């Protein structure tokens, strides 16, 4: 009797690292996909490792823990928000409140899960964490350009700071009301139009 040969399945070993430092970028891409598919609470160190095909211990070479991974992802979010605001300034030909508000509302309503992650972080990290703080500062500097008035003193004066904080609190609050379902609209486009109309008053 001739025996049929059986296929031998050889398990693929999990990698401990990527060549050329690609693991950090791959982990952040996997984390972003996870957050945008299932929300910020779905983010897990082991799940990100599995998605990138490495043992979770390999991630510790780039992130000390899940909190550091979250901060790095939030930093990417603020970088993208800053790029959107700058693009709005460029399209309008000058920095002003209108393009800043449009970019902010577009980002918040089009990427609600990433937006929620960005604003679900302990406050001190926004100011002092070496990964996150510079990205938050990009948005703050752009806001200062948008709300600077001709008679403002040089630098980030108290009056300018208060103007920026008032604007930031207002636009964030309106976007958060929509995200939590307290602001009712037919769809995201209708919500955007309503929020921007309020901000223009």
* Total separate domains: 2
Radius of gyration, whole Å: 22 Å
Per the CATH scheme, the topology name of the largest domain is Tetracycline Repressor, domain 2
- Helix count, DSSP H or I runs of 4 or more residues: 10
CATH domain class name of the largest domain: Mainly Alpha
Let me know the largest β-sheet.
none
CATH superfamily of the largest domain: Tetracycline Repressor, domain 2
Mean pLDDT: 89
Oligomer: single chain
Low-confidence stretches: 1-14
Which structural class do you get from the secondary structure elements?
mainly alpha
* Name of the CATH architecture of the largest domain: Orthogonal Bundle
Task: Calculate the terminal CA-CA distance, rounded to whole Å.
Answer: 88 Å
What attributes does this structure have?
10 helices; disordered N terminus; 201 residues
What's this model, at a glance?
By secondary structure, the chain is mainly α.
Could you walk me through the main structural features you see in this protein, from its secondary elements to its overall organization?
By secondary structure, the protein is mainly alpha-helical. It is about 65% helix and about 0% strand. Helix 5 (about 95-110) crosses helix 6 (about 110-120) and helix 5 packs antiparallel against helix 10 (about 190-200). Mean pLDDT is about 90; it is low at about 1-15.
